[in-house]
Amino acid sequence: xxTPLMPNYARSExxxxxxxxxxxxxxxxxxxxxxxxxxxxxxxxxxHPHLVEALTEQAKKVWHVSNLHNVPxxxxxxxxxxxxxxxxxxxxxxxxxxxxxGAIKMARKFHASRGEENRYRIVTFEGxxxxxxxxxxxxxxxxxxxxGFGPKVEGFDQVPFGDRKALxxxxxxxxxxLMIEPVQGEGGLREVPTEELRYLRDxxxxxxxxxxxxxxQTGVGRTGKLFAYEWAGVAPDIMSIAKGIGGGFPLGAVLxxxxxxxxxxxxxxxxxxxxxxxxxxxxxxxxxxxLAPGFLEDVQRKSLLFKQKLAGLVDQHPKVFDQVRGxxxxxxxxxxxxNGDVTAELRKENLLVVPAGDNVIRLIPPLNVSDAEIxxxxxxxDKAARNLEVTLVRGAAx
Length: 398
Ligand SMILES: *Cc1c(COP(=O)(O)O)cnc(C)c1O
Hints:
- The protein contains 14 helices and 17 strands.
- It is α/β, with parallel strands linked by helices and about 400 residues long.
- It has 2 domains: about 15-35 and about 295-395, Alpha-Beta Complex (Aspartate Aminotransferase, domain 1); about 50-290, Aspartate Aminotransferase, domain 2.
- It has a 7-stranded mixed β-sheet, sandwiched between helices. A 4-stranded mixed β-sheet has the order 1-2-3-15. A 4-stranded antiparallel β-sheet has the order 13-14-17-16, with helices on one face.
- Helix 2 packs antiparallel against helix 11 (about 275-290) and helix 3 (about 70-85) packs parallel to helix 11.
- The longest helix is centred in the last third of the chain and has 27 residues, at about 370-395.
- The chain binds pyridoxal-5'-phosphate (PLP).
- Pyridoxal-5'-phosphate (PLP) binds next to helix 4.
- Pyridoxal-5'-phosphate binds near residues 97, 100, 129, 185 and 216.
């Protein structure tokens, strides 16, 4: 018989009643250390007092008015994002896929508005993940997400990661934009080297193409800068964000330079819920903390500490872990054993992690994780690896 919730997720056995910082607690009092952060969403952990206050205070005033009217906190959040980035204008929405849909539509409209209606193709990269709507599964190009959903939305071309020859061969008069994650999240924490991002910027400029960065996972401090592109010193024309900006409240946004944003004239694009007062209150509260002096520097410091300890684990457990991956606190371990088995074993030790492609486990704690919590997580990783090694020895003996 069908379950009340549709069977499209393989959920763990855990259910949580509440959260406290980096910890989640089940109804029967089991405490679990959350190094998954709701898939890089809870940047300030659970039940952060400043976010709780922002949301509850707003909840007493007004929840939703639609985009038929002004939302002063939306204007305020947009201005803060503009001041902190390359962008000149911001569109709010509700999720990462929706932000990418907005970015894709904007790139196409940009060229159409200049009389180039046929210039709509977008180059993306193999292993990319841009969401689960019809257009964003076409953008990601992964067979496992496309299969069974009818014809793939036209206009997306994938190239292998780092293959400049294939990329340049693909670009034609109909290429509108290039879309990339500065660090592939779901794809297995593969970093795009700085010189590659600079090359892509230059390539786009030479061909009059737009550069779109998908910072849905890398954004809002995850890599130790507010946005990952800052490390490379190259800015996109359009950027999608989501996950971290709401700290757990559904919120996404498209950031863009003026010439791109200007094509979204009244009526061209929209969303009912996007930028509603509840989401805006939380988004502003997230920025209050993430942009406070010293916060991002501390993320950088902690990520170095964590990476050193992870490298030690790889040395100690070569039959379990293969390599440290990632940037900032978008950290992970490429595994030798299947990453699903490692994830399940870690759950037994009360550590939550998130599997990714390329047999990687993501260790993506709240950005306000403490040094002590990092130590606890490393201890749990060590214990789980020992347990798995015992199983391996037993398996070999049988
Ligand atoms: C999670 C993610 C998305 C999709 O976001 P949703 O909110 O699930 O729609 C898109 N791009 C990247 C890089 C992501 O990590």
